[in-house]
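Worked example

This section walks through a single chain of length 292. The input is the sequence exactly as stored; nothing has been trimmed or padded.
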Amino acid sequence: MAGKTGKKKALGRGLDALIRENPLVIETVAAEKEAGARELPIADIVPNRYQPRQEFHDETLQELAGSIRENGVIQPIAVRPLDDGYELISGERRLKAASMAGLETIPAITMDVTDEEQLRLSLVENIQREDLDPIERAQAYRRLMDEFEFTQEELSGKVGKKRSSIANTVRLLTLPQEIQDAIKSGAVTMGHAKAILAFEHVDEQLAACRKIVSEGLSVRAAEKLTEKRKKKTVPVPAEKDVHVAAIEDELREAFGTRVNIVQRGDRGKVEIEYYNADDLERIIDLLRQRNL
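Given that input, the structure is written out below as tokens.
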């Protein structure tokens, strides 16, 4: 009996916390809960187009499917109605596992939410359950900012994370794909990534990442790599005008990448860095959206 209670608590924590922290949907969910979840055909439910999680491990899905065969689906999933069925909002693991277990229907709560609310709810649920790796989280943050024009400050309030945490996470998307892959696999942690970001050039970042992975360096050892590099740097750049520095910070936040303003008297240039073709396309899209 105790085992079943434990499972129910683990499966239910994400959605309950999600509902408490999102007043926009409290009334809708409360009404549905009062009426009770309905059994919906699994075949009528399409995946969440805003699902921030990209990796679902087969082994854990098989374990959940086994639990569902024995105990059923304890926590209902959440869906929103479509013209010809339903779209998943939260509970994709349960939906996949229920299908693997051979179920034809699944208990579900129906919610009327906007695209913005659906993406935010999906993100919040995954963050609360710590289901997302840092790159998936960064991509979800970036998508919220790009598609719904949130500032990092506004996003901070919506997902309950500090602005600095969001900024640091989004910066991961400026790293080369090889490093992003290492972060996704867990070979490089968020602490390692912060140390790697201290290097300005891609070749330095890649060299640091490879050294961290091949030698199994701790975060502190990775930070020492950047300290050694700084000691080797002889030239000390002139301190920038505070107004120019403030504009650089604003542009960095807007584009999620390094921006450098070079002044030569009254003239100068603005340098926006990108790290691969996808990153360049993302920056161009942002410029087009702002009619720049």
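What to look for: The radius of gyration is 23 Å.
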